[in-house]
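tool_call predict_complex ligand=CU-O-CU linkage
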Amino acid sequence: MEHWAGYPQRVWRLLRARWRVVVPVVATLVVLVPLTVMWNNSRLPDSYDMAAMGYADYGGGPGAGRHRHDEGVPVADLVEPADGPADVEVTLTVHQDGRSFTVNGSSPGPTIDATVGDRVEVTLVNDNVSEGTTLHWHGVDVPNAMDGVAGVTQDAVMPGEQFVYRFVADRVGTYWYHSHQISHEQVLGGLLGALVVHPVEGDPSVLEQVVLLHKYDSGPALNGAEGTTTLDAPAGQEVRVRVVNTDNGLAPLWVTGAAYTVLAVDGTDLHGPTPVEGQRYDLPAGGRVDLLIVVPADGARIDFAGTTALVLGRDPVDGAQTTSPKKAVDLLTYGTPADLGLDPEHADRHFEYRIGKRPGFLDGRPGNWWTINGHLFPDTPMYTVAEGDVVVFEIHNGSDDTHPMHLHGHHAVVLSRDGKPATGSPWWVDSLEVGVGETFEIAFVADNPGIWMDHCHNLPHAQQGLVSHLMYMGVASSYRIGGEPGNQPE
Ligand code: C2O
Ligand code: CU
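tool_result ok
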């Protein structure tokens, strides 16, 4: 007892005598301990339920306190009711060769053509992609279990395995498919292709041309071909050009020698579009645009990002360089208004999706990471809705880079940009370029139950945490990120 009585005083004397050592040690601990705790907290478990991550955001609507992600209809059950045989049946075999991927032996893979209303059945066969793969139907609002997101809507398909996707192509338009397993590598490496849903009564006098843009290791390509592609078309021929941007950045395009009309954006026809001349069109990553061009006697030429070109008939500039027009088509005012089919004035939920950046740890890695509403992945909002809700999102880009934002399973209509209301054709999107400092208001009807990714389609950004989800109440998860199949959607 005697021995312990003077202990505090002795320690104190020692600390005072050694303050030159003690002060820096304490200061270091004050910094290091919280950093270590932050680092450790940020580390993701080997496997986790995406729906259990983050925090539920009910957007001012009902639900708080009673919605559970582990109760309800499992995602795996959210499939297309299987009545009747398929109208379109395709087998897509995926092969990996180093950093490159092919689908049925080429990249892009085959274009899938369907007619609206068709039952589409695609069998994905993984030949040798060792880390597993999936197919996501970008822009097609398929039932949730067909959405192809590894760890959220299915397990990654391993070498030698198959997975059958079934959905009804219920809207006309230009779409594409791509892997959603380790997508920042597999999409870049070419695991992708186009999907076109044609109207029942097409116009046979219009020539159709898909233009799938992709930057390979070897360079930028148009349907896999570098440089200029020429389409034989006589003067007076109408050509519908369906452009798909599968890259991580914006693809500016412009037309020389002819005017063009923007027929459709992200698969939805525009209302009252008129021909434009001398303006470029900025196609967001993941986005699609359908252009109508009437081929003039001297031909027309479309330049894509100044790297590839499509010539219709003759080349009006004989292969000479063209320059990008300064002015771009602004869809906020293009075309004429029409009924939106939803009432955003009486929305059931209002969400904010504020994109920023801050230093922190992402799965144990220190860095300057993307944030959503100030939070780092996976502590990002789980936007929670009920089926039938009218939902309004305010997307604000407060970061130093642009973000092509993509919501799965739904099409949203743009209401305003930077407070300026949309006054042109209804502008429905699934891939929306949100520039630095911009704010968009978009609205949609929550009519497709499931757990849906809502992320940046600059895929390295998604891999760096710019990922959130839209979740329906009454839906339960069926899959986990990580685990045995190594599910890794980004
Ligand atoms: Cu085109 Cu989540 O993807
Ligand atoms: Cu981004």
